[in-house]
Amino acid sequence: MALGVGEALQSVICLAPGYVAHPGLPVGWVELVLAGMVLTMIRVLWRPESVTAGAGRFHTLVDLPGIGTWLRRLARHHHVLLALRMMTVAVFLLVIYAGLFGTPLPERNFATVVTWSLWWTGVILSVAFVGSAWCAICPWDALATWLVRRRLWRRAPEHVSLNLRVPRWLRTVWPAWWMFVGLTWLELGLGITTSPHLTAILALVILVLTLVSQLLFERKAFCRHFCSVGRTIGLYQQLSPLALRPIDPEACARCTTLECYHGTADIEPCPTHLVMGRLRENTFCTSCGACSQSCPQANVAWSSRPLGSEAMLDARPRWDLAWFVLALVSLTSFHGLTMLPVWEDWARQVAQVIGDSGQLLWTFTLGMAASMAVPMALFVLVAWVTWQMDGRKLPFRRLFSVLAIPVLPLAFSYHLAHNLNHLVREGRGASAVLLNPLGKGALPMSEAEMLQRQLHPLLDQDLLFALQAGLLVFGFWLAVRILQSRMSQIAGAGPARSLMLPMLVFVAGMSLFNLWLLMQPMVMRM
């Protein structure tokens, strides 16, 4: 039942003049989440089941009546993608202009509202429905490609890139890992989310990095190795029910020309060095359409598959990707931690002890490092215990990498649950910002307007709570399913149950911590 006005007023927490915190998840919903977690644990420990049968099966969507024809045209023709890229580039340029020349009030400026309240939540949400479609229309990549290739879409026979091979020591996702950590530090430590000017500068810096990468290296090294946004989407895509795959795998097996990899006279080669006929995981697929447009047999199309099937069966364990997953799960939780009212009290106390002053950057850095180190250290311990229980049959690095895959749904589910709060509460004023992107003549948001945003979010508050609770239960359930599948592949059905126990404790612990975060009142960003 929806809250009445009186009850809603009681649920809004006024911390101090000018500061309003949105309410946390009510006790009733918390109890439902706990019940879902307990039932999942009982199901796994007492009634284990095979999760591999049919999990990797694809169903081509181009055969569906009505939508199938549209999807086939979308996969084969560049016009729709080109139009979407132009639209995102236009929005990106407006973000830059508004950030540099618009109002400094973050809640009234197009740059901050669109970037932090709408875009980032929308990108993560889109993974569940369209996979890595954002990468296909990314404005950073589009602008850099147009500047280097000097064409909007056709393959350029000559361009200004040095076309160098990426050095071996950079052919990992460690550069993206450091970029992810650095962006989080800039976003929360320097307060970029509340500065339109810094938001625009950050967007320009990423554009410069993308452009420099294309000028130096072959294809799109930035997308595969350096971009933390792309690597986040790529990992979350392991859970997505959609993927580009061959319509007829036998046709790919007979192919000797590999246009999907090499490209054609008009179509660029695969930007991340993938061969469609050998593709088993979507981690590095950017959905750019190069393979579907270049295939002479029109044998590439969007396909559906069970949720999380790639993470259960096909995702290849990798040491660098495992550490990126751990960064994801720790930093997504850290975002929530920094928005708790108690965070500022803790920061002031620590700052007094270490003699920090001003913006408290040393204090923030210490807190961020601890928030990353604790879950990572616990995971290393759990992986080591599991390794010992298994008799050290696998190399430790490989087992470590396998065990990191089930952690992915925990990051994804909390990431969405947390960002939904910002979207439905802080996104309520987005329409006014779209009509006045520079915020000309706008006044700072009053406490009364903050209360109105809390009382009248974009979604009914009970529906929001239901979605958040459902996401946490879904994340825990899927993590356990993936763990069950991966451990049965390593140890067989019998020993898998006992080997799962250390990781089950870790997965449950992280889920409970994320649940506790959602229960707390959180300060609005803008």
Question: What can you see in these coordinates?
Answer:
It contains 24 helices and 6 strands. It has 526 residues and is mainly α. It has a domain at 7-48 and 315-426 and 445-526. It has a 3-stranded antiparallel sheet with strand order 1-2-6. It has a 3-stranded antiparallel sheet with strand order 3-5-4. Helix 4 crosses helix 7 (139-149), helix 16 packs across helix 18 and helix 18 (361-389) packs across helix 19 (396-404).
Topology of helices and strands:
Blueprint: H1 5-11, E1 13-16, E2 19-22, H2 27-46, E3 59-60, H3 67-76, H4 79-101, H5 110-130, H6 133-136, H7 139-149, H8 174-189, H9 196-216, H10 221-226, H11 228-236, E4 242-246, H12 249-254, H13 259-262, H14 290-294, E5 300-304, H15 309-314, H16 319-338, H17 341-354, H18 361-389, H19 396-404, H20 408-426, H21 430-435, H22 447-455, H23 461-491, H24 493-519, E6 522-523
Antiparallel strand pairs: 1-2, 2-6, 3-5, 4-5
Helix pairs in contact: 2-23, 2-24, 4-5, 4-7, 4-9, 5-9, 5-20, 7-9, 8-16, 16-18, 16-19, 16-20, 17-18, 18-19, 18-24, 20-23, 20-24, 23-24
Gist?
With 526 residues, the chain is mainly alpha-helical. The protein has a domain of 236 residues.
SSE string, helix = H, strand = E? HEEHEHHHHHHHHHEHHHEHHHHHHHHHHE
Number of helices: 24
Into which percentage range does the β-strand content fall?
A: under 5%
| Strands in their spatial order, largest beta sheet | 1-2-6
Shape: globular
Count the strands?
A: 6
| Radius of gyration, taken over Cα atoms and rounded to an integer in Å | 24 Å
Helix/strand-derived category reads mainly alpha
Termini gap: 28 Å
Helix content: 55-70%
The profile of the biggest β sheet is: 3 strands, antiparallel
**Arithmetic mean pLDDT:** 87
Low-confidence stretches: 1-11
